[in-house]
Amino acid sequence: PVEVARQMGIADSTLRRYCTDFARHLSPDAAPDAGVKRRFRPSDVAILKRAKELLDMGNTIEAVNDLLALE
Fold first, then answer.
1. pLDDT for the residue numbered 44
2. How far is Cα 34 from Cα 7, in angstroms, rounded to an integer?
3. pLDDT reported for residue 31
4. Which of 66, 46, 26, 57 has the alpha carbon at shortest distance from 16?
5. Which of 16, 47, 51, 52 is least enclosed, having the fewest CB within 10 Å?
6. Residues with Cβ < 8 Å from 29, sequence gap 6 or more?
7. How far apart are the first and last CA of the chain?
8. CA 52, CA 27: separation in Å to the nearest integer?
9. 35 conformational bin, left if phi > 0, alpha if psi -120 to 50, beta if neither
10. What are the C-alpha distances in Å from 23 to residues 8, 51, 64, 66, 69?
């Protein structure tokens, strides 16, 4: 998780929030139950990077979820 956050240029806490906010688009390993270590597949990293890109463009979390569902 630390490496993924670093690749994305975000804090670890932001990565955790993204995993919660966009959980429906991620593998179960990227958004596990409390106390379980996160593991990211390449597809998870790509989705999280796209979500960050959409957020940086001014979209809301709700809008990003809608846009990710269309992609």
1. 97
2. 24
3. 85
4. 26
5. 16
6. 38, 39, 40, 41, 44
7. 24
8. 17
9. left
10. 17, 11, 12, 13, 12
Which residue bears the tokens 């597949």?
41
- Long-range contact set of residues 15-20: C-beta below 8 Å, sequence gap at least 24: 15/48, 18/48, 18/51, 18/52, 19/48
Show the tokens assigned to 11.
Answer: 């804090």
Taking the C-alpha atoms of residue 42 and residue 28, their distance in angstroms, rounded to an integer, is 13
How large is the C-alpha radius of gyration of the chain? 11
- What count of other Cβ atoms lies within 10 Å of the Cβ of residue 25? 19
The series of mean pLDDT values per 10 residues for the chain, 71 residues long, is 94 95 96 89 97 98 98 89
- Residue 18 amino acid letter: Y
In 3D space, the residue among 60, 52, 58 whose CA is nearest the CA of residue 18 turns out to be 52
